[in-house]
Design a protein that fits this description.
The structure is a single chain. By secondary structure, the chain is an all-beta fold. The chain is built from no helices and eleven strands. The strands form two sheets. Strands 2, 4, 5, 6, 9, 10 and 11 form a seven-stranded mixed β-sheet that branches. A four-stranded antiparallel β-sheet has the order 1-3-8-7, with no helix packed on it. Strand 5 and strand 6 form a beta hairpin.
Length: 124
């Protein structure tokens, strides 16, 4: 069993920045960030392969950056130029397989390990 723990959420004004961290208890394959806003379906935000190939949802491209430190089994999500619509619970997921050189094809059901979530609120 792999434990996944997120940190770094909080409240910020529009245009601000936050950095989320996700630590896994051992090395995993794909790692990803999902988010779920109140009353909405869960959305894939960003993924990263073990070799650090990132992919992003169109809604966050150019504003969010995903990175990982394999020595620490940790993935980060740097979120800049935050908007009110980024408000959501953010979940880290780990353990899906790489397919065709990317993690973007993996669905939420493909990830066996999940964190408890960290709240991000963007409001003036």
């Amino acid at each position: 069993q792999v434990q996944v723990v997120e940190s770094g959420g909080g409240s910020v004004q529009p245009g601000g920045s936050l950095r989320l961290s996700c630590a896994a208890s051992r090395d995993t394959l794909c790692m990803a960030w999902f988010r779920q806003a109140a009353g909405k379906v869960r959305e894939l935000v960003a993924t990263i392969t073990p070799g650090a190939t990132p992919n992003y949802a169109d809604s966050v491209k150019g504003r969010f950056t995903i990175s990982r430190d394999n020595a620490k089994n940790t993935v980060y999500l740097q979120m800049n130029s935050l908007k009110a619509e980024d408000t959501a619970m953010y979940y880290c997921a780990a353990g899906a397989a790489v397919r065709h050189g990317t993690c973007w094809l993996a669905t939420a059901a493909s990830y066996p390990y999940w964190g408890q979530g960290t709240q991000v609120t963007v409001s003036s």
